[in-house]
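Feature request, filed as a ticket because there's no other form

It would be nice if the structure record came with a short human-readable summary line next to the tokens. Right now we just get the raw output. Example of a typical job, pasted below so the devs can see what we mean:
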Amino acid sequence: MSMDDLSNLIEPHVPALRRYAWSLAGDRDAADDLVQDCLERAISRWPSRHRDGNLRVWLFTILRNLFLSAARQRTRRGPHLPLDALVDGPTVAGGQDDRMRMRDLMAGLDTLPEEQRSVLLLVSIEDLSYEETAKVLGVPIGTVMSRLSRARDRLRVHMESGPAPSERKAPDLRRVK
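Raw output as currently delivered:
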């Protein structure tokens, strides 16, 4: 298979990979790096890919595994903060209410455990089936369904009543003598 043929097969999946990577990493530059690493790995491992497998599921699995490996590495080494770290969130057209709802939604997603957030994003945003999501995450379909239900419930509660007391950040207090 030529590189052009390979490129034509993989290229349609790049926008979805970027969305998922951004939702995992929370940073545009880190997401772009993650997608680039995913595509590099997919191309280099192309001959060993199962021919009858779903290409989209395979790419999402590679992306998620790379993210988890990097997360484990960060816990060992500590976080890396670039000097020009700017938070660029998704854009929202509309008024102040729409921006506030988007801010609350993004904050709610951040409070979800990684397992629930991944399932919610793969099913709701990337439109993967439960079966495809189960393959990406390496869990049974029942686990996907229960994690999705819990994630939706927690996000709904967060949107209706704000963060739970355990999720609220304690105020920064300092002792004055």
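Something like this underneath would help us a lot:
The two ends are 73 Å apart (CA to CA).
The chain has eight helices and no strands.
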